[in-house]
Specification:
The protein has helices spanning 2-18, 24-42, 47-60, 65-68, 87-104, 107-119, 123-138, 143-161, 165-179, 188-201, 219-240, 254-261, 283-290, 329-338, 377-380, 382-386, 423-430, 453-469, 474-487, 493-499, 502-520, 523-532, 540-557, 560-578, 582-592, 603-612, 616-641, and strands at residues 266-271, 293-298, 304-306, 322-327, 342-343, 359-365, 389-395, 398-401, 416-422, 437-438. It is α+β, with helices and mostly antiparallel strands.
Length: 642
């Protein structure tokens, strides 16, 4: 019902607008704009489907031009699909591949580990660290590139903390956009601005010539905008950020095993002091009496033992050894107290290796064909040989726990083993279908290649150097890095294809023709003229605010570069007429085109939409407030600094 009423309202609005526009072309483009906003706002179909629909409708105007009263199509058929080969779309594809390549080496996991060590595991501490880091990177490289590089980092942080991706990705994405305002090379409009100023100078008298802006001229304004974004999400994030499940979500199986088998286990990390009575004891001496399982150990010589080929029951415990121990809360408390161990509040040494993205609890069934039938876990050295630390066994409706002698019980066909294991070890076990049937399926089947980290970093730095220090097109520079990742074996071409969010690609590529129609038919110029004609008699700051609002609107429906090219000459003329500084007004336009938070038309917003599971109303709720804050901070700082 709500969608129907809204549709009627939008239809009436389109009809009314058609009565006041100066040409039939502008009338039809305005109608398509209104339809786009309606489809996005009320999610009649998915945003990518809506974007493709709009592109198809623009293409069909060539067929129905005589009926519509047009001389030609609103967008030429030869240019309709230019978005798929545009610099922006190809760049996004390339940075997704580069980001996935870096993640394949485990590098992004190490970055995530560092952030968790510094910021802890709470939302209010993680958001400022991630957002400020991405914001800083964005001031020297394209914001979509910075966001794409940190997408795997945020995914891993989500997996280790249990925080939904939707609570972390939007702050990161918004601050990536805001970070582009900190230097004159942070975003395409700012890069373009000085050229536009020089072009405008050709038509201005000598006493009104504008100076170009230096690299860090906008830094004070940009820093305040980034800080505003961070503070906004820290203070109001719990109210405006959704709790969605995106394309990627953390793997958490403890609740399932608690409900199914009564396995209510926790994982803790302890250090063995020099005077502890645990020193010189073996795992065999402590695990059964205390009903715990040691899943990992790090010795003073730096050797770490986890998974297959790692821990033997005969392994002796040295002083200052770090242990990861699993058991019930009561068993862990007793184990810690009796041996006077230093218990850490959370995983530290093993925060990466035993994170939910790397390890967890799994179900493994012994099939009739298994060679393990008639043998016990102790006989086959289950933990050392296969990397499976058995914490429970389920047989004939009965579940036996660790500490109840399950390691010496002979396996029977149909036994279900509840084991703590690394996902890498579980993946190997799954391939041994003769001896095991792995029931658990929702675990990350990663194939990390840490030995390729040099190649990955090398091609990333090559691409970054080309972006920063050459005039080559952004897409070519980034594709150089992406192709290098594939050729060097960092990832296969199939993995490169899988790393691309095609929903994002189709969303952006399909909207580019709409921006072209808005610009080429004169619709954008007409809207700008009509808006500015209403501003006679306003103070300078009011004119500046109106220019910023206009730039904000245009950047939502057309490219930020197109909006900048269109509005900078208008802003310069307004400033001269009002006796204001035209260069400041031009800079206001270039900065305001980064105020793109309301709907997912900006490249960064489109990039995070799928992984975060966001809907358009999520952007409208969080982005609406951010849009207003951006305008307030921008106008205040522009008048304070300049």
């Amino acid at each position: 019902m709500k969608q129907t009423v809204a549709g009627a309202v939008f239809l009436v609005l389109a009809i009314l607008m058609s009565q006041v526009v100066p040409s039939i072309e502008i009338a039809w483009v305005t109608a398509v704009l209104i339809l786009t906003i309606y489809l996005f706002a009320f999610e009649i179909v998915g945003v990518d489907v809506a974007a493709v629909l709009i592109m198809v409708l623009l293409g069909l105007t060539g067929l129905f031009a005589p009926i519509m009263g047009l001389e030609e199509a609103l967008v030429p058929s030869t240019a309709l699909f230019n978005g798929f080969s545009s610099n922006a779309v190809v760049s996004i594809i390339a940075v997704m591949i580069i980001g996935a390549g870096l993640d394949k080496t485990g590098l992004m996991g190490k970055v995530a580990n560092w952030i968790l060590k510094v910021g802890g595991r709470t939302e209010k501490r993680i958001i400022p660290i991630v957002s400020s880091t991405v914001g800083f990177i964005s001031c020297f490289m394209q914001n979509v590139g910075a966001a794409a590089l940190f997408l795997p980092v945020v995914s891993r942080i989500s997996g280790r903390t249990g925080l939904p991706m939707s609570r972390l990705l939007m702050p990161m994405g918004f601050c990536a956009i805001l970070g582009g305002t900190m230097t004159m090379i942070g975003s395409s409009p700012l890069i373009l601005l000085n050229d536009l100023i020089l072009t405008s100078n050709q038509a201005l008298p000598a006493d009104q010539q504008m100076d170009t802006w230096s690299l860090f001229s906008v830094t004070p304004v940009g820093i305040c905008l980034v800080l505003t974004g961070i503070l906004y999400f820290v203070v109001a994030g719990r109210f405006v950020l959704p709790n969605n499940e995106g394309d990627s979500k953390a793997v958490s199986t403890l609740e399932y095993f608690k409900d199914t088998y009564g396995v209510d286990y926790e994982l803790m990390e302890v250090r063995v002091p020099e005077d502890s009575t645990l020193v010189d004891k073996t795992l065999a001496e402590i695990e059964r009496p205390y009903q715990v399982r040691v899943t990992a150990a790090q010795f003073t010589n730096g050797i770490r033992r986890i998974g297959a080929g790692g821990l033997e029951r005969s392994v002796g415990i040295e002083s200052n050894t770090i242990l990861a121990v699993m058991g019930s809360a009561d068993a862990l408390d007793k184990f810690t107290e009796d041996f006077e161990l230093d218990r850490r509040p959370e995983l530290d040494s093993f925060s990466e290796a035993l994170s939910a993205a790397k390890a967890g609890i799994a179900e493994v069934v012994i099939p009739p064909s298994s060679q393990l039938v008639g043998k016990s876990a102790q006989d086959v050295r289950l933990r050392n040989a296969y990397g499976l630390a058995m914490v429970a066994m389920h047989r004939a409706g009965e579940t036996s726990m660790a500490g109840q002698g399950i390691r010496t019980v002979e396996f029977q066909a149909g036994d279900t083993l509840v084991c703590h294991t690394t996902w890498e070890a579980l993946n190997r076990v799954a391939q041994d279908s003769l001896n095991f049937i792995v029931v658990t399926s929702n675990y990350p089947k990663e194939d990390l290649r840490p030995h390729k980290v040099g190649w990955a970093l090398g091609f990333f730095l090559i691409a970054l150097t080309m972006v920063l220090f050459t005039d080559i097109r952004l897409s070519i520079a980034l594709l150089t890095g992406a192709v290098g990742m594939v050729l060097s074996g960092v990832m296969s071409i199939e993995e490169a294809y899988e790393s691309v969010s095609w929903k994002t690609v189709f969303l952006l590529a399909s909207l580019i023709p709409l921006g072209m129609a808005v610009e080429t038919t004169g619709t954008a110029a007409w809207i700008a003229d009509q808006t500015l004609s209403l501003l006679d008699g306003m103070p300078i700051w009011g004119l500046q605010l109106a220019v910023a609002v206009l730039a904000t609107f245009f950047t939502l429906v057309m490219s930020n570069v197109g909006a900048t090219v269109l509005l900078v000459p208008l802003a310069v003329n307004i400033a001269i007429g009002a006796g204001a500084d035209p260069a400041v007004f031009a800079l206001t336009v270039a900065l305001a085109t980064s105020n793109s938070f309301l709907i997912p038309t900006h490249q960064v917003n489109a990039l995070i939409m799928g992984p975060g599971g966001y809907r358009v109303p999520d952007f409208m709720r969080a982005g609406g407030v951010m849009t207003l804050l951006f305008l307030v901070v921008l106008i205040v700082m522009m008048n304070v600094v300049f």
